[in-house]
Specification:
Number of helices: 27
Distance between the termini: 82 Å
Shape: globular
Number of strands: 22
Radius of gyration: 39 Å
Length: 880
């Protein structure tokens, strides 16, 4: 019995099929039954005993059958892999036979895939990659709002929010500040921040060296400690771990270094390079002056909505505490990532959609190439089908060729993407968060390979299905010259419609952004930026607290700059135009009180005499400041035209007075409006006061000033001389931000210009690919209908008629594509609406221009094959 079981097990594990197993069991049962009958048992008892003895073999049967099935599946997988290797080898041989087709298809795909992978790499680094903080989704900003605009928070408001909102685990405040770093080496201007205790706890990041501030160090009298950024520690202090405990001089004050933050804490080039305690004293915990940015970490389980609801309750309470400061103000919660990205998320998504259109156009071109290739291989496919190859087998072979093309295109596209990412990082606007992390990593590699396969397999499926369904009798008889030509023409024309529609969408988006950029460049800024050199300087209040010393230093710097050969005039101002920053305050007009919440809010600038002449700002009425407008003289002010119209509509403002920080100032002039902030911003009310009369208590810890010099010729050539002139007054003062006003204006549109340039380049690529596609379709049409064209010409058709027929054939799908593309262009315009300036998303001129360009390109692309058709020799075309 044991021998039978062993024999049975070996037999089963040999790989028999299920029917053989069952027959083997039946054979053994019958044999055992006969043996038992011969031993004297009755037939029924013998049968029952035999079945009982062999019943335990069923478990062996099941296990062995499973082994057999696994072996069969393994053999099938091996067969499939073997067939795939054969298909791949055959595909490589076939593609090698047609190098021109292969090269064009791979380059077309590489262009589309490379562009898409480049933008995806940037999108992944900037938008999709999580922030390098624990649970970054819990980190939010808390803003005050007024008339829909976000505002900073006052110290009193910060303390009330921190005390009352339970949804926050930590809530901290940041006040951006700049410092003069002096000591060993040249003086350097450092961007930093004054932060409250718990600021670093909000982000959940521990220092790389040392520690961060304690609550005690965030108190007046104990705040002379500093935490360095990794960038500053590496660049200024050579990554010296011994920096801990040393003193550094910041704006004339000594601070002890207690910590260094890790590199992951730096997300943008403009992020602070050092942090010192905010150290709000009781006299600073007031509600009037708002200058703090609040950032908090939500408690686990708390939502931004719950924090917003609590903040709204606190805002109502603050309005009752100080109606003058909080009347009409609200609050808003904003996730940290949204704040970091700003408009970059939308801009990158727009670019990704644009390169997706380019990729689709490239894939459509490849689909048309595959259709043409399939028509040329119709006889080969017919022979394979007649020899027994099924349609599925033929489709798989053709899709394998498409996959090989896709992988080759992805590999080439990956190389282009590597170069593209480097180029984008090099020419991109400054301060794009995390852009330096963009590169070809595993995610981008996987995306690129998947993109190559998906694009070709998707658009290669239709050509494969069409090619794999031949009419055998016709193909073998005619050599494959008419393989479903009508159907193929319809498929190719449909693909051409898609291609033209996508190209039109791309060109509409590019056209709208180009017109928007042109309008932005044409914005009247109110002064002459040509031949204007600017520089920044910051004087520590600890050393220049006395107004006399401050004015002497200012006059020394201005006089030194004016003495430079080639400088026509120089002036000093608290804040340059086009700076995107402003110092604003509510303006109260004498004799014209306004209810709370409806005050005029105006930008404030303190200037030296001659400022308006230096910048080329026109004075519409009145006189300029003079050296007689000193601190001991009556207070005077110059208002801009916008403020004059709001405060004294229909009246002359000269001689009128406005209240600034409790002092009544007499209006002595009206200046022309200028763009104080971004070019796309509306002109704001503004007023100017003499630097000598600017309230001393508003300077803060540092007196930040800007120099402006009008030059003869190239202003950048005077930069070094300007530095020497300033440091001749005080060698410890770093001179920074030395730029021409033209550069400042150019930087304001850098992001818009960058996006416009990229989208315009993608539009040109899309147009070129569409033109190539049109050319390919018409050239194929001419080659397939050579005999028909010859017959027409033999029957009397002229070259002009043939030319018109071919061009008409080309324009039919183009015009359909234009019609479809206009609808897509309207959607593209809506997607770009928030990025446009001075141009409607449905701008008729842009749409008309794009249609004209696209139709012209289609005519030019169809002209060459049309001319070839018109020159067909009827005798050669009709020859057998």
């Amino acid at each position: 019995m044991a021998g039978w079981r062993r024999s049975f097990r070996l037999h089963l594990r040999g790989g028999t099929v299920e029917r053989d197993v069952d027959e083997e069991i039946a054979f053994h049962v019958e044999t055992r039954t006969e043996e038992l009958i011969e031993q004297g048992m009755s037939p029924s008892a013998a049968r029952e005993e035999a079945l009982r003895c062999f019943g335990d073999l069923q478990g062996v049967r099941r296990s062995c059958l499973e082994i057999g099935r696994r072996r069969q599946r393994g053999r099938r997988r091996l067969e499939i892999l073997s067939e795939m290797r054969q298909d791949a080898a055959f595909a490589l041989r076939q593609l090698a036979k047609t190098p021109a087709f292969t090269l064009v298809a791979v380059l077309t795909l590489a262009l589309g895939i490379g562009a898409t992978a480049t933008i995806f790499s940037v999108l992944h680094a900037v938008v999709l990659r999580p922030l390098p903080f624990p649970e970054p989704e819990r980190i939010v900003h808390l803003w005050a709002t007024w008339q829909g605009d976000e505002r900073s928070v006052s110290p009193g408001g910060f303390l009330e929010f921190r005390r009352s909102i339970r949804s926050f685990e930590h809530l901290a405040a940041l006040h951006s500040a700049s410092f003069n770093l002096t000591g060993e080496g040249a003086p350097e201007r450092i961007e930093g921040g004054r932060v409250s205790a718990g600021y670093f706890d909000v982000f959940g990041i521990r220092p790389a060296l040392g520690r961060v501030f304690s609550a005690q160090e965030d108190q007046p009298g104990h705040e002379r400690v500093v935490v360095l950024s990794h960038r500053l520690w590496r660049g200024r202090f050579g990554s010296d771990p011994g920096i801990l405990g040393q003193d550094v001089r910041l704006s004339g004050q000594l601070y002890r270094v207690i910590g260094v933050m890790p590199a992951v804490f730096e997300l943008r080039a403009s992020d602070p390079e050092l942090w010192v305690p905010l150290a709000l004293g009781p006299d600073q915990a007031v509600h009037g002056n708002s200058f703090l940015v609040l950032v908090g970490r939500l408690r686990r389980g708390a939502s931004p909505e719950s924090a917003a609801a609590e903040a709204a309750v606190v805002a109502k309470r603050l309005e009752k505490i100080d109606p003058q400061s909080y009347q009409g103000k609200g609050t808003r919660i904003e996730p940290l990532l949204d704040r970091l990205l700003g408009s970059y998320r939308r801009r990158l998504l727009v670019l990704l959609g644009a390169v997706g259109c380019v990729l689709a156009i490239a894939a459509v071109n490849v689909a048309n190439l595959l259709l043409a290739r399939g028509a040329g291989r119709s006889r080969e496919i017919a022979i394979r089908a007649s020899l027994g190859a099924g349609r599925g087998r033929i489709v798989r072979q053709l899709l394998t060729e498409s996959a090989v093309l896709g992988l080759a295109g992805a590999a080439a596209g990956l190389g282009l993407a590597g170069l593209g990412v480097q180029s984008l990082v090099a020419i991109s606007p400054a301060n794009v968060p995390r852009l330096e992390a963009a590169g070809i990593d595993g995610t981008v590699l996987g995306f690129t390979v998947a993109l190559g396969l998906a694009s070709v397999l998707l658009f290669g499926l239709v050509p494969a299905l069409r090619t794999a369904r031949p009419d055998l009798q016709t193909m073998l008889k005619e050599g494959g010259r008419s393989l479903g030509s009508g159907l193929r023409d319809r498929v190719r024309s449909s693909l051409l419609v898609v291609e033209v529609a996508l190209a039109l969408m791309l060109l509409v988006g590019a056209g709208l952004l180009i017109r928007s950029a042109v309008r932005l460049q044409q914005v009247e800024i109110g002064f002459d930026p040509e031949d204007l050199l600017t520089a920044q300087v910051s004087l520590p209040t600890s050393e220049y607290a006395e107004p006399a010393r401050l004015l002497a230093a200012v006059e020394g710097m201005r006089g030194g700059v004016e003495a430079i050969p080639g400088v026509r005039s120089a002036s000093v101002v608290s804040l340059l135009p086009l700076s995107r920053y402003n110092l604003s305050s509510n303006v109260r007009i004498e004799g014209k009180p306004r209810p709370p919440g409806e005050e005029i809010n105006g930008d404030t600038r303190s200037v030296t005499p001659g400022y308006f002449r230096t910048l080329g700002i026109s004075l519409l009425q009145g006189r300029d400041f003079t050296d007689r407008d000193r601190a001991s003289s009556p207070g005077v002010v110059i208002v801009n035209q916008r403020l004059a119209e709001m405060a004294w509509p229909g009246e002359s403002p000269l001689g009128k007075r406005l209240d600034y920080t409790g002092d009544l100032l007499e209006v002595i002039a009206v200046a022309g409006d200028i763009r104080a902030g971004g070019l796309e911003e509306e002109v704001r009310p503004a007023f100017y006061v003499p630097l000598a009369q600017f309230p001393k208590d508003l300077w803060g810890a540092e007196i930040q000033l800007a120099l402006a010099a009008r030059t003869d010729g190239e202003p950048a050539a005077k930069a070094e001389a300007l530095r020497r002139a300033v440091q001749a007054v005080d060698p410890k003062l770093p001179v920074f931000g030395v730029r021409t006003m033209g550069e400042i204006r150019s930087d304001l549109v850098a992001t818009t210009r960058f996006n416009t340039m990229l989208l315009a380049a993608l539009g040109v690529i899309g147009l070129a690919l569409a033109a190539v596609g049109i050319y390919g379709v018409i050239a194929y049409f001419v080659s397939q209908r050579t005999a028909e064209i010859g017959l027409r010409m033999a029957l009397g058709a002229t070259e002009k008629k043939v030319l018109a027929m071919v061009v008409r054939q080309a324009l039919q799908p183009v015009l359909v594509g234009v019609t479809v593309g206009i609808g897509g262009g309207l959607m593209a315009g809506r997607a770009l609406a928030s990025l446009l300036f001075g141009v409607s998303a449905t701008d008729p001129a842009t749409f008309a221009g794009v249609v004209l360009v696209l139709v012209t390109a289609a005519l030019l692309a169809s002209w060459v094959p049309a001319r070839r058709a018109a020159r067909v020799d009827p005798t050669r075309a009709l020859a057998p």
